């Protein structure tokens, strides 16, 4: 499929060339154009099926599959999977264009990257701000939170954390000038990402951060290609690769509760979909999400099998 071909293209490690900011922007702009062409070239507007999208990383795929199976179980509508649609902006555009109906998102990401609002607020406040803005401005709504908060996680090797007795980002700032950093492109550009983080903690690295596909960050950290990475708190490879998450002791990052973003038109046409999504409310803890990610990333299991086992364990599917 075209979406899979694009995801494959995105998995090249362009960071080895360490492009400057202009080159990075040109590269990302080209990727966005390609992805938008893919999205606009997908099937026309639909009312006979529910199209589930996802971003191009493990957790988004896993949540997309959970949503797909949950809706298949509790709806008569045909479900189509359209996963690996690049990042936040592409998924959002696909949703607004009606090419997909639902995709998993995070409240902090929606607040800062989509709505361009300042970072701040507790879980309930951020959720309500995003839900209200999405409904009034975008014709979208949020399902209830799935139950876990997948905040950005500044990861280092566990051996380094123990050797240097590091626990927090504030403590790590003294060692950052000796470290090579690796981040995803979105993290480098987002208002809740790299620029604000280095300002909040006074971080300075040995060189300009390498821009890497999200799936490459943890292995690169383990293999000493980089020394610190911006991953996600529920990464399945954190315990598997003996990585350590530095505490965000200055509370820079907002809450990132996982939710389903849904077109309001889809709910009007298929009200049972909202009910099916609502039944996932509070069903996935931080630890459970990490185990689900581990099953895909470390055990190389099929997402459909893992999703079905989890939903069945919660009594949601047969």
What does this molecule look like?
The chain is α/β, with parallel strands linked by helices and 318 residues long. The chain has two domains: 2-149 and 257-313, 3-Layer(aba) Sandwich (D-Maltodextrin-Binding Protein, domain 2); 152-246, D-Maltodextrin-Binding Protein, domain 2, CATH 3.40.190. 48% of the residues lie in helices and 14% in strands. The chain is built from 16 helices and ten strands. It has helices spanning 2-10, 21-40, 58-74, 88-96, 107-114, 123-138, 158-164, 169-172, 185-189, 194-201, 214-222, 237-240, 264-269, 271-278, 286-297, 303-313, and strands at residues 49-53, 78-82, 102-106, 140-142, 152-157, 181-183, 210-211, 228-232, 243-246, 258-263. A five-stranded mixed β-sheet has the order 7-6-8-5-9. The chain has a three-stranded antiparallel β-sheet with strand order 3-10-4. It has a two-stranded parallel sheet with strand order 1-2. The relative contact order is 0.17. Mean pLDDT is 87; it is low at 1-44.
SSE arrangement:
Layout: H1 2-10, H2 21-40, E1 49-53, H3 58-74, E2 78-82, H4 88-96, E3 102-106, H5 107-114, H6 123-138, E4 140-142, E5 152-157, H7 158-164, H8 169-172, E6 181-183, H9 185-189, H10 194-201, E7 210-211, H11 214-222, E8 228-232, H12 237-240, E9 243-246, E10 258-263, H13 264-269, H14 271-278, H15 286-297, H16 303-313
Parallel strand pairs: 1-2, 6-7, 6-8
Antiparallel strand pairs: 3-10, 4-10, 5-8, 5-9
Helix pairs in contact: 1-2, 2-4, 3-14, 3-16, 5-6
